[in-house]
């Protein structure tokens, strides 16, 4: 009972939990795809499940959805405040491997798929049309899916995952294959879903989108947990700061390299991009730099999630299949 | 298992596939093709029977030709007498087509019973009527030679027929035999055609990845059952259309008012038909779940689909000996049960206990194949990029497989 109660309340012991994953493991032959991961998702939160290719994200999501059996561990849903098993009608799912009936009309796909989740056909048709209109697909409602572009199909698939108004939505790479305009659109919809109290667990490669959307993240590599917590906590716990300087090009900057914990990443006439991992607080660092040089502009901030992600994966999990993913790539493909 | 989900899938499969070009083509094209085939066969036989054959006869006995000519007087074969000296000329005229062939009847040939018939092409199949005529004529000649009077010969050579009757005195009913046998053919055709549409549907769902969405909403068992019921309804429509067309065509040749069906005779056949349909359909669906694509069907998997039809290959042997030990054993081997029992029902009346026992075997095997099919379906459906081997299929049936 105690454990159940602990599961129901999240780590802060305050917020209601919708999903609890405990010691979940899965192997394929000798390869451990998911190795003893545990996390919980608070009601109404957006949680990012991150990791390089082959880290075990999709396997974990499939086990949560009951599509793959787990070798060990348990998944508990708290839809009504009490622990229970998966009620598929209360969960929306956008799989990594997209799929629709390509020889069937768009609206019929939506009505059938939400019908399987328990939504009445008339209601699904009406709301489906509204969603298609919102996502600029109303003209294609009565076309066969095969006539649509990949991006359009992706949007139809997204509608299919939320049309039945689930309590929890699992989105596996919801932004892949979408142009920036549609990425923004989906991002906006996810925010609206969150505002409606719908809980979202998403895996994505686009770190800037994860950073904008997620309240918390769970980073896995080689099937194991590498990093987890709220974005705020993770950034606070990350010891390095990014330091961007603008100054007169005649300024001498050789002293920068002498500051303990300071790394110079880029330096040019009048600009410098630095990383600071020393003991000074940001305000102490600003004061120190201000005393040593005449600054036109200074920015001290926590590095973007993208950088924290790569560094953490390198330090704690090894690179695994992240070859080709570099710190300099702003949206590296994992 | 949730009946509601099964019904939703069944309705979807039915409404989606009834409009599909493949189903429409099979449903409409099949009776049309069968009618065309039947008409060609009928027309071919009728025209072959009407075709006039000119046959030259060298009769060295001098007595057989008149009997032969009399026997063939009302047929399409006309015989012409020649002497042994005409052999060379006849060979040329057979070669040029003036005569279909020539018979050479000698005393020796009458004694040995082997009458040579010389033709241009020995593969010519139009010899049955001539064979009957020559057998009759030589037998009659022999009897006359033995000293029997013409009346005695007529009496001896009069045809004798075996008339089969039941103990109650009823004549054998061809309809009782026809219904189960027709059901066997319809079962195999319907199961193969709609089963293949079902199988390709499963492969397609796997290939276009929709199956993962489906399994995130309903169980694999509900999905499989829904498909089976949906396709059973489609199969039923096919069977009704084919039967209606078949009866309409048959009405041109036979008096259908004589066709009185006894429910007690037809019910077992119908039960085995329905059970057989579900057995084959679940096999096709499970096989589809193991395939990567329609083109990648392995020969081993193809064999799985042929196994239930093996009894059809042995149908004539089963009809000849419907209660033979091996046939009885075959009736209890699940994949063979429906076809074997249906063929047996065409040839005999099974004891009630054997009908019941084989039906129980069929029901249990249908349940087994559906559960096993769902398990294979469940465990192989996410393996998009490869076909599943038979060994792996076996392992998937194990509860502990993961």
Please, could you describe this protein's structure?
The complex is a heterodimer of chains A (about 325) and B (about 400). By secondary structure, chain A is α/β, with parallel strands linked by helices. Chain A has two domains: about 1-100 and about 150-235, Rossmann fold, CATH 3.40.50.300; about 240-300, Alpha-Beta Plaits (2-Layer Sandwich). Helix content of chain A is about 30%, strand content about 25%. Chain A has helices at about 1-10, 55-65, 105-115, 120-135, 150-160, 180-195, 205-215, 230-235, 280-290, 305-315; strands at about 15-30, 30-40, 45-50, 70-75, 90-95, 170, 200-205, 215-220, 225-230, 240-245, 260-270, 270-275, 295-300. In chain A, helix 3 (about 105-115) packs across helix 4 (about 120-135) and helix 3 runs parallel beside helix 5 (about 150-160). The longest helix of chain A has 16 residues, at about 180-195. The radius of gyration of chain A is 23 Å and the shape is globular. In chain B, strand 1, helix 3 and strand 2 (about 75-80) form a beta-alpha-beta unit. Chain B has a four-stranded mixed sheet, with helices on both faces. Chain B has 18 helices and four strands. Chain B has about 400 residues and is mainly alpha-helical. The mean pLDDT of chain B is about 85. Chain B folds into two domains: about 5-30 and about 175-395, no CATH class; about 55-155, Periplasmic binding protein-like II (D-Maltodextrin-Binding Protein, domain 2). In chain B, helix 2 (about 20-50) packs parallel to helix 10 (about 220-250), helix 8 (about 175-205) packs parallel to helix 11 (about 265-290) and helix 10 (about 220-250) packs across helix 11 (about 265-290). Classes of the chains: A alpha/beta (about 325), B mainly alpha (about 400).
């Amino acid at each position: 009972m105690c454990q159940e109660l602990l599961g129901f309340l999240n780590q802060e012991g305050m917020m209601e939990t919708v999903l609890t994953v405990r010691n979940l493991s899965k192997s394929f032959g000798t390869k451990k795809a998911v190795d003893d991961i545990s996390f919980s998702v608070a009601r109404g939160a957006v949680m990012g499940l991150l990791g390089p290719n082959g880290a075990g994200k999709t396997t974990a999501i499939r086990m949560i959805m009951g599509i793959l059996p787990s070798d060990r561990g348990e998944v508990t849903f708290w839809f009504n405040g009490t622990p229970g098993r998966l009620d598929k009608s209360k969960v929306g799912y956008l799989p990594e491997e997209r799929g629709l009936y390509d020889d069937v009309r768009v609206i019929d796909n939506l009505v059938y798929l939400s019908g399987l989740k328990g939504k009445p056909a008339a209601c699904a048709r009406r709301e489906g049309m509204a969603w298609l209109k919102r996502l600029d697909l109303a003209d294609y409602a009565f076309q066969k899916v095969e006539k649509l572009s990949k991006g359009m199909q992706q949007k139809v698939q997204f509608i299919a995952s939320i049309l039945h108004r689930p309590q929890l939505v699992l989105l596996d790479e919801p932004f892949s294959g979408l142009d920036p305009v549609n990425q923004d659109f989906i991002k906006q919809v996810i925010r609206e879903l969150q505002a409606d109290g719908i809980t979202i667990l998403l895996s994505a490669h686009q770190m800037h989108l994860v950073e904008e959307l997620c309240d918390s993240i769970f980073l896995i590599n080689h099937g194991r947990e590498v990093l987890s917590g709220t974005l705020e906590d993770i950034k606070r716990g990350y010891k390095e700061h990014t330091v961007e300087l603008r100054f007169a090009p005649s300024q001498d900057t050789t002293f920068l390299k002498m500051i303990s914990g300071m790394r110079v990443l880029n330096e040019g006439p009048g600009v410098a991009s630095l990383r600071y991992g020393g003991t000074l607080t940001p305000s102490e660092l600003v004061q120190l730099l201000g005393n040593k040089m005449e600054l036109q502009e200074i920015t001290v901030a926590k590095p973007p999630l993208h950088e924290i992600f790569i560094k953490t994966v390198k330090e704690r999990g090894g690179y695994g299949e992240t070859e080709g993913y570099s710190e300099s790539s702003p949206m590296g493909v994992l | 298992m949730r009946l509601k989900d099964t019904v939703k899938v069944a309705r979807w499969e039915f409404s989606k596939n009834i409009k599909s070009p493949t189903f429409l083509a099979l449903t409409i094209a099949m009776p049309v093709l069968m009618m065309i085939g039947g008409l060609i066969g009928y027309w071919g036989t009728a025209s072959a029977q009407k075709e006039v054959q000119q046959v030259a006869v060298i009769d060295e006995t001098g007595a057989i030709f008149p009997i032969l000519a009399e026997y063939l007087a009302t047929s399409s074969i006309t015989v012409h007498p020649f002497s042994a000296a005409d052999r060379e000329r006849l060979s040329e005229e057979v070669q040029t087509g003036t005569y279909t062939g020539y018979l050479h009847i000698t005393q020796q040939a009458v004694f040995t019973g082997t009458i040579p018939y010389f033709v241009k092409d020995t593969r010519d199949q139009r010899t049955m009527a001539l064979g009957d005529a020559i057998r009759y004529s030589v037998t009659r000649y022999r009897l006359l030679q033995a000293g029997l009077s013409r009346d005695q010969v007529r009496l001896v050579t009069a045809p004798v027929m075996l008339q089969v009757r039941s103990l109650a005195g009823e004549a054998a009913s061809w309809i009782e035999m026809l219904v189960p046998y027709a059901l066997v053919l319809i079962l195999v055709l319907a199961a193969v055609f709609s089963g293949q549409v079902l199988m390709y549907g499963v492969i397609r769902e796997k290939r276009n990845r929709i199956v993962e969405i489906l399994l995130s909403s309903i169980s694999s068992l509900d999905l499989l059952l829904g498909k089976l019921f949906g396709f059973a309804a489609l199969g039923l429509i096919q069977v009704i259309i084919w039967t209606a067309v078949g009866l309409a065509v048959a009405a041109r040749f036979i008096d259908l008012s004589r066709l009185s069906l006894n429910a007690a005779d037809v019910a077992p056949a119908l039960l085995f038909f329905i059970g057989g349909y579900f057995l084959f359909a679940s096999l096709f669906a499970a096989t589809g779940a193991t395939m990567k694509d329609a083109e990648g069907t392995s020969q081993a998997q193809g064999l799985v689909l042929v196994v239930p039809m093996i009894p059809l290959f042995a149908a004539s042997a089963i009809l000849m000996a419907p209660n033979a030990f091996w046939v009885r054993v075959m009736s209890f081997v699940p994949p063979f049960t429906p076809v074997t029992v249906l063929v047996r029902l065409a040839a005999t009346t099974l004891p009630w206990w054997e009908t019941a026992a084989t039906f129980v075997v069929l029901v249990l095997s249908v349940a087994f194949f559906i559960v096993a099919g769902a398990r294979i379906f469940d465990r192989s459906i996410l393996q998009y990029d490869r076909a599943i081997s038979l060994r792996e299929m076996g392992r998937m049936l194990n509860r502990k497989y993961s």
